[in-house]
Amino acid sequence: MRRLVFLAVVPAMAVGAGPIAPLEAQVRVRYGVDTPMRDGVNLVSDIWMPAGNGPFPVILVRTPYERTMEVVPENRPPVMGEYFARHGYVWIIQDTRGRGDSEGSFHFFRDDGRDGYDTIEWIARQPWSNGRVCMMGVSYLGTVQWLAAREKPPHLACIAPTAAAGRWFEELPYLGGALQVEFMLGWSYRTAGRTYAGSNATGLDWASIYRHRPLLTMDEAVGRRIPLWREFMEHPTLDDYWKRLQFEAPKDFVGLDLPALHITGWFDWDQPGALFYWRGMREHSPAAAHQYLLIGPWTHPQTWTGGNLTLGQWRFSGPSVVDYKPIHLAFFDRYLKQTSERFEFPRARIFLTGSNVWRDLEAYPPSTAQPVRLYLRSGGRANSLAGDGTLSRSPPGAEPPDRYQYDPKDPVPSTVGGGDPRGIDHRPIERRDDVLVYTAEVLADTLTIAGRIFVTIHAATDGRDTDFTAKILDVHPDGRALKLGQPKWA
């Protein structure tokens, strides 16, 4: 297939905070460039190139959200493309298979490993490329980097995945045993065609749609058949459909000799996947010494935009907001362009939300962290905030079990009044009798929580099917209970 290619020349301009030293007078842009895959399908990209003949190192972004969409205005493609091109990099954004202008059919990550490999090797053969390629991007755009890396393209020099999903059935499509109906249906609806469909969903009665049963045909309540949604519903367990995406440790990390910049947020719903890749590379990769981690007080989108000083009722300090472009640039200068001898960044940098400070660490979780076991205790009436449930360091003795009655017509909500569950006061939910609440004593000293949290529950049900979930909340002096950890609908 042939495609008309437009070539644009744009003047350099200041982008982002602070002055930028003049590097090149112009940036060249090529639109609608075809890249052939091994099966003959063409994927389409826009390319920002530095002035001059090159060859140049190349940064690749692959997206199912259409390469022209301004999903994140602060870091939309022209801003990112011009920024990196002025610093001596070719910056490419490509529509994944079956999305935007790219040919083929879109499937959930099915082709992204092979297509990523073919794109990287095509780039390495172009006269403007010096044969060194690195990938970057957030969310789906982060996971495709890992899938491509697992294929071991010879010219992939490094990756910079942000908020990359990777722990199937721990973050998607289930979280804590609960199906993420709202997220999975909405996401599959928006990506069901070649172009973004979300805008036309305005005005739909989503609350009524979510009550539709069976789950398999919930797409009919939306008004269109969504093959991807039905694929998800036809695979409700961690079967081969999902295992094809799941990395295995140590096998899939042992062969990945790649420097990586890992970014996630405390309120990022893909935090389990991002930290899973981090641990896998730190523990098993030949490039373990070249892994870097950044965790801030950010939601999923904010891992790409840099954050905000407020998140619902959470309040953070000014340093919590970060401009990612200079961090990525320094990483690429070290590992892609190789003009720097060092990447001046700690092994792990994390933001402590209580004290509002950054901490630089040699490992994450911190090597000095001490595991603490807490026990759910009560006199058999932990129901609601007014119950007798406690969170204790002392193990229980012969204590009666807690019981509650679940009404499937009135399930426990994850938020108050619908909408975003992040940074809300959970006390209205905790007042329900079908919610068990276990509260620790008031802390006498400062407590820093860092690392993985596990909940072991011994439960029985007389229902045919029951999902049990748990959440950990920070109770403020005024009684507000704000959820810690990734916020997805649980």
Overview of the molecule:
- The chain folds into three domains: 6-168 and 247-361, Rossmann fold, CATH 3.40.50.1820; 174-242; 369-490, Jelly Rolls (Sandwich).
- The chain is α/β, with parallel strands linked by helices.
- The chain has an eleven-stranded mixed beta sheet, sandwiched between helices. It has a two-stranded antiparallel sheet with strand order 8-9. Strands 12-13 form a two-stranded antiparallel sheet.
- 21% of the residues lie in helices and 21% in strands.
Topology, pairings included?
Elements: E1 6-11, E2 26-36, E3 42-50, E4 56-63, H1 77-86, E5 90-95, H2 112-124, E6 129-138, H3 140-150, E7 156-162, E8 174-175, E9 178-179, H4 181-190, H5 206-210, H6 218-222, H7 227-233, H8 240-243, H9 251-254, E10 260-267, H10 271-284, E11 291-299, H11 302-305, E12 310-311, E13 314-315, H12 324-335, E14 348-352, E15 357-361, E16 375-377, E17 390-392, H13 427-430, E18 473-475, E19 481-483
